[in-house]
Amino acid sequence: DAIIQIKNVYKYFGRLCALNKINLDITPGEKVVVIGPSGSGKSTMLRSINRLEKIDKGQILVDGKDINDRSNDINMLRQELGMVFQSFNLFPHKTVLGNLMMAPMKLKKMSKESAEKRAMELLHKVGISDKAHVYPKMLSGGQQQRVAISRALAMDPKIMLFDEPTSALDPEMIGEVLEVMVNLAKEGMTMVCVTHEMGFAREVADKVIFMDNGKIIETGTPEHFFNAP
Ligand code: ADP
Ligand code: ADP
Predict the structure, then answer these.
(1) What is the spatial distance between Cα 104 and Cα 115, in angstroms, rounded to a whole number?
(2) How high is the ipTM of this complex?
(3) Which InterPro entries match (predicted)?
């Protein structure tokens, strides 16, 4: 059934209700695109799924496990969920390969050799293996974001969360990042993407969710949202 279940979730920042009774089920392999005005709670919803924000009420289950239940290991959860942010968050003092060799591979307790082999495969997958030994500042924004995606994939997550992954990029670099995301979608990855890229939504989304004021106002197919009547 559902790999992510969001049940009656509320999140407050002081008196501001950032998530107001959110209910959402996401099935394995499903691609969900979240749209809505700035400040509507899109990012807070994604961050709550990954437990970067703690919800105040309701329940979020990932793979059947309550993510706020202390008996469930947070590291296990973070391995199931890969997240990509608007800012690339690469470690500046590590090479591209070094960035992939950090936390994720360590969690998996791989030997250095197999971790490196896996990292190179992932860099190849996002089309950037020739940059393995350079530092992030030598890369374009689009290249850095592709590294960030490959780093998130290093944990072999079941689900990928994208929070406006192309919003910080120059227009000419958006395509190369979306292409990596489209390929991931074609491989069957479960994806939840906050994005303004309507072409992407039209191409890959199974479900589009429109949020406003902390609520899910409407759910439908891309056709429902983007085709003129
Ligand atoms: P969106 O991603 O749709 O732009 P957000 O989820 O970032 O919206 O924010 C939802 C609302 O919660 C906004 O009003 C925002 O200002 C507020 N908010 C988000 N994070 C915090 C925070 N850490 N502290 C206080 N308010 C926050
Ligand atoms: P986004 O592009 O996701 O909407 P924002 O620029 O709204 O990001 O927020 C960036 C960071 O600041 C996030 O970590 C968010 O939680 C936090 N934040 C957003 N709004 C507020 C707020 N009103 N007060 C404090 N922190 C906030």
Answers:
(1) 10
(2) 0.76
(3) AAA+_ATPase, ABC_ATPase_HisP-typ, ABC_transporter-like_ATP-bd, ABC_transporter-like_CS, MetN_ABC_transporter-like, P-loop_NTPase
